[in-house]
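Q: Give me the 3D complex with magnesium ion.
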Amino acid sequence: MTPSDADLAADQLLAETLAVEAGELLLQIRDSEKATGRSLGDIGDRRSNEFLLARLAEERPGDAVLSEESPDVSARETASRVWIIDPVDGTREFSMRGRGDWAVHVALWLRDGTPERSRLDVSAVSLPGLGLVIGTGGARTFAGEPVPLEPGETAGGLLDPLDDVAGPRIVASGSRPPRFLAGVVASLGGTQHAVGSAGAKAMCVVRGEADAYIHAGGQFQWDSAAPAGVAMAHGFAACRIDGTPLEYNVADTYLPDLIICRPELRDEIVDAIAAHR
Ligand SMILES: Nc1ncnc2c1ncn2[C@@H]1O[C@H](COP(=O)(O)O)[C@@H](OP(=O)(O)O)[C@H]1O
Ligand SMILES: [Mg+2]
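A: Here is the predicted complex, encoded as structure tokens.
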């Protein structure tokens, strides 16, 4: 049965609320814990995961959950509602105090969701370091103030000011960029920028700081579900690097590559990747 608008709105509000609350918890952990580096990242992953699982069990006890930090259960494959969460995306950057390029991902995969949106009609990405949450309807601060998403209005973003940069701005992993990326960026006449976290990179595109996010070589469903859901809701293209759709709640959690970009760039990027792979 297709979910009603009221049900979708209630789920969307929950997704955004949980992404904000987990983000606030992570900021508090980062401020108060003595741990550094990998151990700080482990504490953040574990505590944010425990928090999100407890809140989902309370608010939506009948739903299945697929989390980066919990064992996968086959029951989700036959479920009609599956929350796909990444309690800290960009754990490495989270553990480097002062950085803002990390995120909390909360998406709800709906069997009866919109196929063109990979059934991720309900999605939220929070960027706790920037105090922002971006959902399918728009962006707001953690305090609830609406934030415009138009290009040029993204004060306090993740990239350096790029006024003098011509051509498409492509964001990619700083630690594991796709091997073909330099060739693709050159053939698009663009520039390459390193940003941590899949969610943070996708939100650079949604907020107009970048024109495309390209990844290949490894990733999992939770890394891209909420970012892709938010991007598609705002009219951006999201697909595999060969142009095929991103599929979620399939048995294999491995989903190694993606493109999230302005819709008019999609075909050109797919063609450039095919030429450089
Ligand atoms: N080659 C690879 N294999 C597996 N996961 C990868 C990967 N490259 C990136 N990722 C995951 O994708 C997310 C974004 O990575 P990056 O910042 O390098 O772009 C990170 O998620 P987590 O921080 O949730 O583990 C990272 O672990
Ligand atoms: Mg991740």
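A quick observation: The chain has a mean pLDDT of 95.
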